[in-house]
Amino acid sequence: MPVTAPAQGGQGPAAAGGKASTAAAGGKASTAAAGGKASTAAAGGKAIRVVPPGGGRAPRNPLQEFYETPGVPLRSGPDRARRQARMLARVLRDRDFSGPAVIIDVGCGDGSTLAAMAGENQGHRFAGIDWSSDGLRQARVLGLTVLRGGVAPGLPVADGTADVVIMSEFIEHLVDPDGAVAEVRRVLRPGGSLLLSTPNLAAWYNRALLAVGVQPVFSEVSLRGVYGRPGSVVAGHLRLFTRRALAEFLAAGGFRCVTMAGARYHGVPRPLGPLDRAFCRWPSAASILLVHARKALTPMAQASRTRTAAKHAAQHRRQARLRLDRLPLTRLRLNRLRLAHRPSGPLLELGGLAVGLAAGLCIALGVLSPASPRHPPAAAVTHRPLVVPGASAPDPAALDAEWAAYSDRSGCADWAGGDGVSAIRLNSSQLAWFFSDTYLGPAGPATGFSRISGFVNNSVVIQTRAGHASSFVTMTGGGACSGPGRPGQAAPVVAPPAAPGGPADRYWDEDGITVGRTVVKFYNRYLAGSIPFVPAGTVIATFGVSQLSAAGHGPAYGAVARPALIPLPSWTPPGGTSPVIWGAALLQAGSTAYVYGTQSIQGQGSQGAFRQLYLARVPLSRLTTFSAWRFYAGAGQWAARQQDARPVPPPDGGVSSGFSVVAIGGRYWLIEAGAAPGSQDVDAYPASEPWGPFGPGVLLYRNPAIGLDAAHDYRIMYEARAEPALSTGHTLVISYNVNSEAVTAGCVPMSAFTNTVTQPRFITVPLAAFDPGPGTGTGAVRTASVAPDYPRVVPRHPSQWFNSWSYPDGCPPVPGLTAVRASLGADKVTLSWPDAGLGVRYRVYLQGPTDIPAATAYGDSASFAHLQPGGYLARVVPVNTRQDAGVSAETTFIVP
After folding, report:
1. Are 413 and 555 within 8 A, CB to CB?
2. 128 vs 126: CA distance, rounded Å
3. Distance (Å, rounded) from C-alpha 377 to C-alpha 477?
4. What gap in Å lies between CA 329 and CA 55, rounded to an integer?
5. Which of 331-345, 412-426, 832-846 has the lowest mean pLDDT?
6. In sequence order, what are the beta bridge partners of 716?
7. How far apart are CA 122 and CA 124, in angstroms?
8. How far apart are CA 108 and CA 105, in angstroms?
9. What sign for the dihedral angle of Cα 206, 209, 211, 216?
């Protein structure tokens, strides 16, 4: 039997995929007749064996987990949204009554399609329904009325109250489309309209692809990857229709097709775009099917409707339903476009199909091949880069504001947050910013990161200044979205070979320098896995300055960086368990480059681990030639072999994972954020030589917003680096990274709630602070900075947040349930339990005459309808985002 969680339930998944995630909660469980058992779980559509009481870990539901994975598309695309908006305008114009109409978008995702329709058709009442908390948050930003729910066990709308129901790119994700169409028919008034869009299995190119043994576009055989067909993004398509099949399916569900039109598909290679537009005239071969169908009222259907009206009315009075008659009239402003419907003839269609088959064969045979399915470069489109206000002077407030604005306005191909920040100047107006872990947009201070195009371990952002404003272009290794609202699966700029069947190692950026017309950048490799991060080696990446500069002047989408990679020989000192990794800091002294490296004691690069400091020198022009390096061997001596290197005495406070060494005032200063976990300080340690020893530190800056406690949102500050590209002859600019180690009781990270946790921050220090005078002591110097304005998230619910560093796997123990209560109503049983904590989900099991496979609830209750009479055992298991289970609670009840 279906299980549903109320719309006002607990915190949902942080980045659940909007439109498709409604489908995950929307597949109805099929129930057998007397004595039969439910065969499919409502929350995912896959039957899962009921775990006996006392079982351990909650069972996985792969389909449900897929739809909760970041990167699942939230929208169907602007072109289809406009087409459906125009189709809705015709429907509303031809309706048989006056007054505001009620329009419901089932699976509204982020609300973009609903907003387009509302803007084109003002004066009516619009509402959206979706299961994704993330999608609904974005929809509310657009000023839309939205409700959390799914098609199982029923839409939260009373019978016969909607004039139009929209299902945009939704039905292909459903386990049970028959049940969904039946629900739509129930909520529509007599003669109401269904506007539906879905991919066409018989699209012109699919006919040719299948003819030569290639899996058709839109079809999928796995939730983990794309196999046997062009493309790289898994969308979760379960049901695909041809034009004929869709018309017959809707007719069987009690609908009469009024019109069926075609629409374009954004994934068609650009040279074939005009052909794809042409095939919109012949829906049977178009990429996308757009349908307008009306609710048919046959005599049998009318009699059935009369018999069941009283039953449904009583049922809906017992359930919370959306009051559609009280929805506000929509007042949105969007450009209006007119729909031109062109009828087609069979001869024209056959001629067009011949052209389509030829072009499709070209795709299948590779003449016009789409991008590689692994990590394809995004197709560049003519969208200008995002421009944000800023300042050319080294002003910390302006620098902070630039990156905050870029994040808040980011699109699906834009940087939205990241750490490991460092800048290299390309020319007088351009900077190349290098980042380690990077979120792509959209993002917001109250919504966190969407991950539409994924999350990458490193990226490059090109900033081009023009007066008091800057444009930004984000470069990845390919695979980011190719246009606004399109999904993507971005790859990092520097990545190891893919590891089959498991997570890949990660490369995080270190320091870099320009040598001639080449940017030389160091990246350190860390083994896959969570804290403690284990270092494994170093590569040098080289970028052409002209390549990076050209990307900054190019479009906002499709920027790809492909550096040449030079791996360095790995060496682990005697008695150590991890190798020396190079490039933490670079120091240029005339024509010589000094390269600093670190080694984590006991192989742990985690918080609080002690690091040994190593040093090499090499002529700057031969920086990428490892055989030219000479290694500090102690007592001012240098050796040709890495194995003869000896540690450099570190500062008294130790050395952190990221730092800088700069030459100021005749001395060498090691600048770093405090190495102790949760340190608020940025310090500078002087030495007379690049190899030290480094004397007592000078406190440059203390950040009052940092601290590993609830009052400070468990924030940390790390990797403080000097930024010569931003500094002047009188002022040194220092960047640093901020993150939060806070997770909820359900192990949901802070990044799911706000984008302010991983944005670069800056301070400026006058060079006079590095005079020989303050060579000793710890007195603070005069530093320019901005008062931190981080949102206070943890203090709102301090008992629900935890320091992830306090737990071996980064997650607190899942809270247990103490009780579960069963309430019997007319033809329905409701299970309820105390809320276990923020972000905790619940697996619900039911054993009895009607068995319920595991289903997921996001609130503190679940309802079961139409249970067979008899005794039941109900069990509720709390789980976190990693599917770790807490102590369950059970209850028994009897259905008379």
Report:
1. no
2. 7
3. 7
4. 51
5. 331-345
6. 739
7. 6
8. 5
9. negative
d(C-alpha 724, C-alpha 512), whole Å: 11
Strands 535-544 and 564-567: antiparallel
- d(CA 237, CA 240) in angstroms, rounded, equals 7
Residue 753 burial (C-beta neighbours within 10 Å; 0-12, 13-18, 19+): buried
Paired sense of beta strands 742-744 and 801-803, if any: antiparallel
- The pairing of beta strand 102-106 with beta strand 125-130: parallel
> By the 8 A CB rule, do 841 and 856 touch?
yes
Residue 311, burial from CB neighbour count under 10 angstroms (0-12, 13-18, 19+): exposed
* C-alpha R_g of the chain: 30
Instruction: Please tell me whether the peptide bond between 532 and the residue prior to it is cis, using omega within 30 degrees of 0.
Output: yes
CA atoms of 294 and 272, how far apart (whole Å): 34
> What is the DSSP-derived secondary structure letter of residue 4?
B
How far, in Å, are 148, 285, 293, 593 from residue 166 at the CA level? 16, 23, 11, 63
pLDDT > 70: percent of the chain: 74
**Residue 89's pLDDT is what?**
85
CB-CB contact of 429 with 466 (8 Å): yes
Furthest-apart CA atoms within the chain: distance in Å: 100
Comparing C-alpha atoms, which of 529, 528, 532 is closest to residue 495? Answer: 528
Per the CB < 8 A criterion, the answer to whether 577 and 588 are in contact is: no
Give me the amino acid identity at 717: M
Give the integer Cα–Cα distance in Å for 362 and 384. 31
Is the CB of residue 265 less than 8 Å from the CB of residue 199? yes
747: nearest Cα among 668, 683, 686, 807:
807
26's CB contacts (< 8 A; 6+ apart) are 107, 131, 150, 151, 152, 173, 174, 175, 176, 180
The crossing angle, in degrees rounded to 10, of helices 204-211 and 346-365 is 50
Nearest 10 degrees: Cα torsion 603, 608, 610, 616: 80
Summarised one tens digit per residue, pLDDT across range 714-742 is 999 999 999 999 999 889 999 999 999 99
For residue 705, the tally of other CB atoms under 10 A from its CB is 17
Q: How far from 474 is each of 411, 428, 544, 553, CA to CA, in Å?
A: 10, 19, 16, 11
Q: List pLDDT tens digits, range 413-457.
A: 899 999 999 999 999 999 999 999 999 988 888 888 877 667 899
Residue 667: count of CB within 10 angstroms of its CB: 18
Q: How far apart are CA 824 and CA 830, in angstroms?
A: 7
Task: Note the pLDDT of residue 45.
Answer: 30
Instruction: For CA atoms 79, 85, 89, 95, give the dihedral sign.
Output: positive
How many Cα atoms are found within 13 Å in the side-chain-facing hemisphere of 546? 2
Amino acid identity of 227?
Y
d(CA 507, CA 539): 9
Q: Is residue 644 classed as helix, strand or coil in its secondary structure?
A: helix
In the chain, the amino acid numbered 670 is L
* Euclidean distance between CA atoms 531 and 359, whole angstroms: 51
CA of 582: how far to CAs of 175, 436, 632, 656, in Å?
52, 16, 13, 14
Is residue 19's pLDDT more than 90? no
Taking alpha carbons only, the member of 198, 167, 174 closest to residue 29 is: 174
**What are the pLDDT digits (tens) for 516-527?**
999 999 999 998
Structure tokens at 607: 């918080």
Task: Give, in order, the Cα–Cα distances in Å from 605 to each of 427, 693, 749.
Answer: 35, 23, 21
Rounded-to-integer distance, Cα 231 and Cα 265, Å:
12
The contacts of residue 160 (CB under 8 Å, 6+ apart) are: 186, 187, 188, 189, 190, 192
